[in-house]
């Protein structure tokens, strides 16, 4: 169905949702009053009210007495606790626009924590990759990843702001087939808080991930720091 064929309230609801998802109407902000929106879209107030009611029902907006209609802080369900897929794939499947900023990508020597998780000798060369990842233009997770240089020296040639690490590893027959994750809840440091746009000492989900190939060899060790205020995690346990 084209936009011209949609009911007017649905066109307005779609436009308001797009503005919420792109940050034009930030979380916890008040959207314009119904009378202003009716003038903007050149429709009646009941039509605007119907569009807003739909977004309230879907959990994007909340009516506040004496204040107006508020953009809710919607939590993003992260399913990587039981799925192995790239960040972009997971976000896109949810209808969320993903973006990655590459903050750091260089060769370093493995410290004790990295060498233990990658099963490498201390000080062996590894690639260190730091990425800040966004959902609908909002920073949600800071990821620091280590990969053994000797297993895939060509990695330095890739731009991981644009391409997936897992997809790239798969090109070199190093597909991650199993992961081991450890979860902690910690207070955000000043650096992490600044990057994730939260207050210092706010709670963050702190995931350590060891990625293994089919031969059970570790190819990746990552530390992911997720904002606690807008992320939730799906745990799928079966007997």
From TrEMBL:
Keywords noted in UniProt: DNA-binding, Transcription, Transcription regulation
Stored Gene3D superfamilies: Chorismate lyase-like, Winged helix-like DNA-binding domain superfamily/Winged helix DNA-binding domain
Annotated GO MF terms: DNA binding; DNA-binding transcription factor activity
Record keyword 4Fe-4S present: no
Signal peptide: none
CDD domains: WHTH_GntR
Gene Ontology terms describing biological process: negative regulation of DNA-templated transcription
Keyword 4Fe-4S: no
All copies of domain HTH gntR-type, residue ranges: 6-74
InterPro entries named in the record: Bact_HTH_transcr_reg, Chorismate_lyase_/UTRA_dom_sf, Tscrpt_reg_HTH_GntR, UTRA, WH-like_DNA-bd_sf, WH_DNA-bd_sf
PANTHER family: MANNOSYL-D-GLYCERATE TRANSPORT/METABOLISM SYSTEM REPRESSOR MNGR-RELATED (PTHR44846), MANNOSYL-D-GLYCERATE TRANSPORT_METABOLISM SYSTEM REPRESSOR MNGR-RELATED (PTHR44846:SF1)
Protein name: GntR family transcriptional regulator
Source organism of this protein record: Lactobacillus helsingborgensis
Biological classification of the source: Bacteria, Bacillati, Bacillota, Bacilli, Lactobacillales
